Structures are given as C-alpha cells and as structure tokens.
Amino acid sequence: MVTSRPSSIYFGYGSNMWIDQMDRRCPENKYLGIARLADWKWFICEKGYANVVRSPGDEVWGLVYEISEADEQKLDGYENVPDNYHKQYHTVTVFDKKHKAEGAAGAATLALIYVDVERTKESSPKTEYIYRMNMAIADALKEGVPEAYIKKYLRAFIPE
User: Fold this and answer.
1) Where are the beta strands (DSSP E) in the chain?
2) Is 79 among the residues known to form the active site?
3) What positions does the domain Gamma-glutamylcyclotransferase AIG2-like occupy (predicted)?
C-alpha cells in the first residue's frame, strides 16, 4: 500500500458513483469509466456509510475519476479524513463502458480509495444515504457496473 499521492485517479465505490454528486463535490474531475477492485468486499459500516475490507474472492466495482489536488482536498473533507476514512492507494482494473461490454481486459492503475479501517462491522445505512446510494446505483448500472454485483453486494444493504 502506498500512502502518498502517486496518481490523480480516484476510485469511488459508494455515493461517489453518483456522477452529479462528484461533479458538485469535485468540479475539476474528469470521469474515466468503471473499475474493479479485486479481493475486497463492499458493505455498510457502523457509521451508516459504504466501506470496503480485504476479502479474498470478493470484488468491489466503482467509478473512477481523474481529480486535481484541490478536488482531492475537498474529498478529504467530505470523507472526514482521518477521523472516518483513511486514504489508501490500491490497484484497480479500469474499463470504459464500450470495452467492458465487449469483455475486454481492463487497464491496471493505482487509485486513491477511502477506507474506514476502524469500522469494519456490517450495519444499516443512514436514511439520507439511501437516496444518494440509489442515485449512485443508477449511474453505476448505466455506466456498465455488473447488475449481479449490485444485487449481491449493494442491494443487501440499500433498499430500492
């Protein structure tokens, strides 16, 4: 795991899959496509928000964005770094929508991921978070995140 800023690629796996929210939070962002984080698992943690933990055989899908340093500082505020989330850098496989649909292999890249290392137990989502996650799920599906992933992981916590 790298702890300094090696790239400007950000992997959003929770409500930041909602493209409009990312545009409001990080106005300089450039949407790049979808990505998969292998051997991690998505869940709602005790704070009521999305989190990921290492889990061999599982996977986390999300949207990737190129962000500026100014946008990253804004995201740090939204993610309440370091009180809630910690910044980590992990390799994700990036796909654009066309290539994912064709089953092509994606490109491996190092991406910033916010991880809550202290709250690792499953819980229920905050009421306000359900709406934002449903908007994020709609965008994720539209962009090509596998529906089977959404059903297996996200819908176990987020009602429609």
Assistant:
1) 9-12, 30-44, 50-66, 86-95, 107-115
2) yes
3) 10-115
Place of tokens 């409500």: 15
pTM: 0.90
Please tell me the number of Cα atoms within 13 Å of 26 on its side-chain side: 28
Q: Is 7 annotated as a binding residue?
A: no
Whether 160 is covered by a domain: the verdict is: no
Predicted confidence (pLDDT) per residue in 137-152, tens digit: 999 999 999 999 999 9
Q: Is the dihedral of CA 71, 28, 50, 47 positive or negative?
A: positive
Q: Is 31 annotated as a binding residue?
A: no
In a domain, 121, yes or no: yes
- Using one digit for the tens of pLDDT, what is the confidence trace for 83-114? 999 999 999 999 875 555 445 667 899 999 99
